[in-house]
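Can you make up a polypeptide sequence alongside its tokenized fold?
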Amino acid sequence: MVHSFLFEWKKRWKNKRLVLIFLSAILSSVGLYILHYTVASSVEQANLTKIETDIIQYGNYLQELQLQHEDAIKFSDEEVQDSIHDSIELFEQNLKGTKAELTNKQNGNWQSIYENEITMLTNVLTNGDELGFMIAELELSRFSYRTTLNELVWMEEHNLEPFIQQTRHFRLLPNVYENFEGTAEHQWKNLTTRYSKNGLSYLYLISQSFLLPMLLAFGCVLFGQVFSRKHKNEGFDLSATLPITTMKLYTGKLVAGVTGVVLFTLSMILAPLIFSLLLADLGSLHYPVLMYELNDLGHGIFDPKRDPYHFISLRDYFEQYLTLAAALTLFLFSLYSLFAIMIRHIGLRIIVFLAIILTAHLASFGPYNPFSYFDLYQIVNGQLALDSYDGRFQVSTGVGVLLLSSILFFALSFVGFKWRAKPGYS
């Protein structure tokens, strides 16, 4: 089996087109990080510019008030003097606080910023139903305040740098409890979209998309060709002439293909992580990740004031995410290996492979359907379980279902491989 693996591995990497695609994909991954880094820097600078603008405006207001106060003194208008004096004190206090905010953010003194924001959010939550933040004249749910407050407490305890958002205060935590529409939805999305310069935080942000499943599917197409034939009338592969059993030959191809997919995916992940060391730093694995929990009220019934939730560290999140991703890798490769054996034409094979994945994922809805576990982020953080009110949607169930499905497809592909290897097959 080892000889078969080495034979297939070397043969795949002799393909110049494969090497070119592999390197191009890595460069694209780095380019995507650089683009994200640029946007993050732009948003961060825009936030600082807003603070600097407020400082200038407060200074101008104070100058005008000082002149008005002098005029009031000339005319001996004590009532106006007192009113202007109160306004001056207010603007001086605002100016002092804004300058302190700018200094803290420029110097990365997040502890002081967290203390102020935690105090403000705590006051908001203790004011009964009178909440203080509006999105297009619509109130936020208490769930947003509760989760944001607990996230801030976690960040303060671990002395973490916050994500970058298009806001100066209250970096609200995005969640599924806010179901806005129209203008409010657009404002909420802009307000809660997060950016980060750090490598680990960047990986967490992109893990919320379908990027990794897409990479896995692409990797299966690249390295699943170990089971395909090069020519239409080719009766057997060169590797089939080796003095080994069909099982060892199949296993060697299988291990070579899966190893290629894993190497490809890890390279796409590690490339921006390593490159982040040149522009920023890796970040921390202690960042909090929101995990949804089911309440006792039933499907579709939410209580933002009392619904349970908890946070886990980014380290624990990645462990669960990558475990599920590994199972998904085997499932996708087992599915593609079956198509590679059954369908000769590579273009048709890829179309069928992607069409079945997309159709089955959109149509599927059940904890024991392997196609339900493509949205890794929603499985890990419990969002799919919350939306469906089905606690069976979890990482352990997904891993089991994907592995059992992989075994089934690998068995079918081996039967097809063995049948194809018979003399006279074309």
In short: Residues 110-160+162-196 form one domain. Residues 231-236 have pLDDT under 50 and may be disordered.
